[in-house]
Design a protein that fits this description.
- The chain is an alpha/beta fold.
- Helix content is 47%, strand content 13%.
- A six-stranded parallel β-sheet has the order 2-1-3-4-5-6, sandwiched between helices. It has a five-stranded parallel β-sheet with strand order 8-7-9-11-13, with helices on both faces.
- The two termini are 28 Å apart.
Length: 492
């Protein structure tokens, strides 16, 4: 199967992860544009080069995984910063029609984000005014929406009344949201006309009230009016959606519909609402499974695949928090969970491990148990990065299409299980101050920061049992957005 892939942006999770997945399956030939054409953090991608690339390559492929955020705005961050008119954006969308007309047989699986509204003040990934007014912008609409839907307390009303945002700031923010929502609506028209075959509209960093959920309600209403329920899915996520659609393309091409049996490490796991998301874990999981073209199975004997979900005990914390709530031990039994994984593998089942006990990193206790039981080379997939939904889409893709998966498991073990919860904090505390740099500003010391991360990653990996069976000589690290949040790796 030949797949053309336009990623959401240039970060490794969007550019390199799909290649890792495709390389694990000898039946997939994946083609991506040169990274030079894509966005570079806040700098938008080159629309003309991307358009040329897609039209020049569409004839030779069976499927296209298409980030409309990259095509129309120039990337995820560009979708939050652009000053393009609605007319210009509509013009860029028309390339979808050109692609379909040039190759009517190609299946186009597209995704297009609902613009997020972070609850904190930072301009790192938002317009410059978000540094000063970000939290106010979020609270303004969050509390207004909550008041209209369910009511708010006197204290919340006082907070709402105290919010002050310059008119020009709010106007710029809301106008861009409205233009983007208009494009979401136009995309549904393209789907209805058959120019797209399937569409995912993910919510990046969502909340139960506010701008994003209001936009979601508008889109869901349009989906129902246009009777597109079977061709559109809206749920929390962003960076993993391309992987989910790659799995869907593979399953559809091969006329497969694998059945997946999920089980959790805690009784309350399916009902817990993860950080940065707006619904219980099991509700998100059902959406992710359906998007890949698979189905949920409630009988382990009839399941083609097993998904082991490491969930919090009662509520989710960040992986790097020093003090873990007692419910992480009192409300779950990780040893029994890992023994069950081992039993399923002995029965010949293919098992993927979704490490979603914490946000922004894996669970050290789980990793230790999996390593002691020598399971990392036997499971078919592992991920535990960023949000629950980011990890979910990653694991499901690998679980459904992976053949040779150990290298990918080790990559995610190092990045998700070692870097995010442990090494990142160690370097922030011990290395950055000595170099005179900060989390977001490396100055001329980026190479030294990268090398410090790499050295610590290799040191900690070598303490694990799996390192004896799969030794690593060298890890080269890059920090693609010149900050500590995410890394790229070359492992040899």
């Amino acid at each position: 199967m030949k797949v053309l892939y336009l990623p959401l942006d240039e970060r490794p999770c969007n550019y390199y992860y799909p290649q890792m997945m495709a390389e694990s399956n000898r039946h997939i030939e994946l083609t991506l544009p040169d990274a030079a054409y894509l966005s570079h953090k806040k700098q938008a991608g080159n629309y003309k080069k991307i358009r040329e690339y897609l039209l020049d390559n569409v004839q030779n492929n069976d499927a296209l995984i298409l980030s409309l955020d990259m095509l129309i705005y120039g990337g995820l961050l560009a979708s939050r910063l652009h000053q393009n008119t609605a007319e210009e954006l509509e013009k860029r969308l028309k390339i979808v029609k050109e692609i379909k007309e040039k190759n009517p047989k190609i299946k186009i699986y597209a995704f297009e984000s609902l613009m997020r509204c972070p609850k904190y003040s930072s301009s790192e990934e938002e317009p410059s005014y978000y540094q000063e007014y970000g939290r106010e912008i979020f609270l303004h609409k969050y509390l207004s929406d909550k008041k209209a839907r369910v009511g708010i307390s006197d204290e919340e009303q006082k907070e709402l009344d105290s919010i002050s945002i310059p008119k020009e700031v709010l106007a710029d923010y809301e106008q861009r949201r409205q233009r983007n929502l208009q494009i979401n609506s136009s995309t549904l028209d393209y789907l209805q006309k058959g120019y797209l075959d399937f569409l995912v509209i993910p919510q990046d960093d969502s909340a139960p009230f506010g701008y994003t959920v209001i936009d979601q309600k508008y889109i869901l209403n349009e989906v129902k009016q246009k009777e597109l329920d079977d061709q559109v899915m809206v749920y929390p996520g962003a960076d993993e959606v391309g992987l989910s659609l790659l799995a869907r393309a593979y399953n559809k091409y091969n006329h497969r519909k694998p059945s997946i049996y999920p089980f959790y490490s805690s009784v309350l796991g399916p009902t817990i609402v993860p950080l940065y998301e707006d619904r219980p874990m099991y509700e998100s999981l059902m959406s992710h499974i359906l998007v890949t073209g698979a189905r949920v199975c409630d009988n382990v004997k009839e399941a083609d695949l097993i998904l082991a979900v490491n969930s919090p005990g009662k509520f989710m914390q960040e992986s790097f928090e020093e003090h873990k709530d007692i419910t992480y031990s009192a409300y779950r039994h990780l040893r029994a969970f890992c023994y069950q994984i081992a039993d399923y593998i002995k029965q010949g089942k293919s098992v993927g491990v979704l490490d979603s006990a914490y946000a922004n990193g894996g669970d050290d206790e789980l990793i230790s148990l999996l390593d002691k039981l020598n399971l990392f080379s036997k499971i078919k997939a592992y991920a535990g990065w960023n949000t629950n939904c980011n990890s979910t889409g990653t694991v499901l893709c690998q679980l459904e299409l992976g053949e040779e998966t150990v290298a990918n498991n080790i990559y995610h073990l190092i990045e998700d299980g070692i870097y995010q919860p442990k090494v990142r904090q160690k370097v922030i505390k011990d290395v950055l101050p000595k170099l005179g740099v900060s989390y977001y500003v490396f100055k001329d010391k980026e190479k030294q920061v990268d090398d410090s991360i790499a050295s610590e990653l290799l040191s900690q990996y070598n303490t694990l049992n799996i390192s004896k069976k799969y030794p690593i000589k060298e890890i080269n690290v890059t920090t693609p957005w010149h900050r500590m949040f995410e890394i790229g790796m070359n492992i040899s």
